Predict the 3D structure of the following.
Amino acid sequence: MGNERVAVGAAAAGTLTIGKDRTVNRLGFGAMRLTGKGIWGPPADLNAAANVLRRAVSAGIDFIDTADSYGPYVSEELIAQTLYPYPADLIIATKGGLTRSGPNEWHANGRPHHLREALEGSLRRLRLDCIELYQLHRPDPQVPYEESVGALAEMQRAGKIRHIGVSNVTTEQLAQARALVAVVSVQNRYNAEDRESDDVLKVCERDRIAFLPWAPIGGPARLEHHALERVAREHGATKVQIAIAWLLEHSPVMLPIPGTGSVKHLDENIAAASLRLSADECAALAHAAS
C-alpha cells in the first residue's frame, strides 16, 4: 500500500463543494435532536448533547445544520456554547422562516421583517458576524416567495449571509429563488422510501447544487423492508447505516445530515460513510421502497 492513506470517519464519504468555494465532507450532522421532546426546550442531558457535538467535529464532520426554531433557539445556543471558537473548516448552516408555539408545533413565517429578526438572532446566538449558509426553512403560503427570498438577498448584500439555501421547495419555487439569488443548497425530505423530490434532486445534480436530505432514514416501516435487512446482514451493518450509505451512493450532490442525541448512534452513523454498496444492492433497496 506504500504511503496511501485510507479516509476514516466522515471523510470516508468523500467531499462536496458548496457555493464553489467551500468543500466539506459529504456526511454532515443535523442538530435538531439536541433539544427536548417535540424539538422543544433543552435536552434532558446538556452534557450528553455537548459531547455529541464535540465527537462529531473530532470525527471529521465539518458541516452542522441547525435552525432558530430548534428549541426554539436551544440548538444554536448549544452549538456556540460547545464549539466556539469554531474550527476554521467548520460550516454551521442555520435556517429561518418557522416559528414555534409548543412541542411539535411549527408555523411558517416568511415575512421579510421576521426573517431579518430571525437572522439577527441567529448571528447573536452563534456568535458570528456572517452566517456561512443561511436557509429559508419553508415557503410561507401567506407571503409571496419572491419577497421571502428577496429579504435573504438583501441581508446577503449587507454582508450578513455568505451563501443562501432553500428548503422544502418544488422545482418551481427553486427556479423562483434562483432568479433572485445564487442558491447553493436545497434541503428537502428525501430517503429511499420517499423520493417525491426526485425532480428537485435532478436539478441539483445538473447544476451541482448541494442536496441535504432531511428524514434521511425514512419512517419506521422503511426499516422493516426485507431488502434492507438482507443488505445490512451482508455488510455486517445496521439498517440505519445502510439507509445512509444508500443516500451517499444515490447521488454525488447528496449531503446527508442524520441527527442524534447519542454519541453511540453518532458513531454508528459516521461509520456508514465507509460502506460501499453495489449497484444491485442500491437498486434492490430503491425497488423495495417503491
